[in-house]
Amino acid sequence: MLLENKVAIVTGASRGIGRSIALLFSKEGAKISAIARTEQDLKNLKDEIESTGGKCLIFKGDVSDENDVKKSVEKTIQEFGKIDILVNNAGFGIYKPVVELTTEEFDKMVAVNFRGVFLFTKYVLPHMMRQNSGVIINISSIAGTLGVRNMAVYAATKWAVNGFTESIMHEVREYNIRVASLCPGSVDTNFSNVAGSNPPTKDKVLKPEDVAQTALLIATLPERAMLSHLILRPTNPR
Description:
Strand content: 15-25%
Number of helices: 6
Low-confidence stretches: 192-197
Mean pLDDT: 94
Keywords: NADP, Oxidoreductase
InterPro entries: NAD(P)-bd_dom_sf, Sc_DH/Rdtase_CS, SDR_fam
Distance between the termini: 36 Å
Largest sheet: 7 strands, parallel
GO molecular function: oxidoreductase activity
CATH superfamily: NAD(P)-binding Rossmann-like Domain
Protein name: 3-oxoacyl-[acyl-carrier protein] reductase
Shape: globular
CATH architecture: 3-Layer(aba) Sandwich
Oligomer: single chain
Structural class: alpha/beta
Helix content: 40-55%
Number of domains: 1
Organism: Candidatus Thermokryptus mobilis
CATH class: Alpha Beta
Order of helices and strands: EHEHEHEHEHEHE
């Protein structure tokens, strides 16, 4: 198994891309620490992982809450003894013109999509630096590489994640820690980052499993090699 004896934290793990990453990483031997806000979905994930012999720790919490982040990282260390992989996946978007977007909606997108990435990275990195190894995968978006009509704030948070990822990579690569941003195009989840009057054909867009497989590739490269920024697109979405 590609991730045997590894420990992975996955945020936003109860649904969509996060859930697929947690399941695939567990299948490949990783012990999973899953964080999300929906407790029943987390319990369902835990049951599915443990039914196949895997190990899963769940934590109901908000990635933008510093106390929740600290507690979940501490609980992971107490339970599993280390953290090898962090997948910052939690995020959401609101499809509105800027003039219709409320300040509260702005604050919430920034808090979940960017503050959450900052907090988990801040509290996981000291453990990775002490062990002189680790992988951080930040699930961004193709919207973090180009402007998207009616998604200005969502796109801005993903641009921020990409800039943060690139900068952190330079800070910690001397500790053999690899940091990558993974930027999917349209994914068949509850939230598609390409919306509008002419959406891609549903059966041709990316599936959460495609993103999970790409995250696994990033996490399992030889330690001397690092993918720092990757855009994943549907082959033929129309």
